[in-house]
Design a protein that fits this description.
By secondary structure, the chain is of the alpha/beta class. Helices cover about 50% and strands about 15% of the residues.
Length: about 230
């Protein structure tokens, strides 16, 4: 089965090189070549490809357009695979690409593509709904995760995190005590421990509660595990 590909890169030389590489693959067909985001979206609607092979940054904003295209396709055309080619070893790009799932997604570093077979294998994998992530990107993701685990919030126990979640909702100590079935004194002790672990200096209590809540809300999307002790 021939896999139909829309190719996108803002560099003329890169577009020509990739077109030449893919032209030599018998089971691939490049149905459109684009230089910017809007052209890619138009080509997708016109050609209904199996896979989009795209640079990570393109006009108009040069701000992870390839990743945003992949995110949009997850909703509008979930069957279309996306292979993102990047020169950036940035964990956040990979995380954004995989935010809604890894099926049909690939993240490859341009400098580590050594032959045609690596690229065509990734294209076929995404067309089939599988995923391919460059090992160097995986290493960067693991390293970033390790650093995040050392954050101050990671030092909180599960109970302290539960209480901080209540604080983030704007609840008072008595309200938190009722919600979690604790005594008011126990809540006060936990909150003091939270302030200490988050290294929030002695100051007006309201100020420390606000700062702690903001730290919690900023950290929440990562869903870092709390300590169990």
């Amino acid at each position: 089965m021939t896999v139909r590909v829309v190719l996108a890169d803002d560099s003329y030389l890169v577009r020509e090189a990739l077109s030449h590489v893919l032209a030599g693959a018998e089971d691939l067909e490049v149905v459109a070549v684009c230089a910017e985001r809007d052209d890619v979206l138009a080509a997708i609607e016109a050609e209904r490809p199996d896979v989009v092979l795209t640079d990570i940054r393109m006009p108009p904003d040069y701000d992870a357009e390839g990743v945003s295209i992949a995110a949009e396709l997850r909703d509008t055309h979930p069957h279309i695979g996306v292979v993102v080619l990047s020169q950036y070893l940035e964990p956040r790009y990979a995380l954004e690409l995989l935010a809604k799932g890894s099926d049909g997604r690939a993240y490859l570093l341009k400098e580590r593509l050594h032959d045609r077979s690596e690229l065509t294998a990734a294209i076929h994998a995404t067309a089939a709904g599988s995923s391919v992530i460059d090992p160097k990107v995986v290493e960067a993701l693991v390293a970033a995760r390790s650093r995040s685990e050392a954050s101050l919030l990671a030092e909180l126990t599960q109970r302290e995190r539960e209480i901080l979640a209540e604080v983030a909702q704007g609840k008072s100590n008595p309200a938190i005590a009722v919600s979690l079935g604790l005594s008011k004194r126990a809540v006060e002790k936990h909150i003091n421990a939270i302030f200490t672990k988050l290294r929030l200096p002695e100051s007006e209590d309201v100020s420390r509660r606000v700062k702690a809540a903001l730290m919690f809300l900023a950290d929440e999307p990562s869903q870092r595990p709390a300590r169990s002790d």
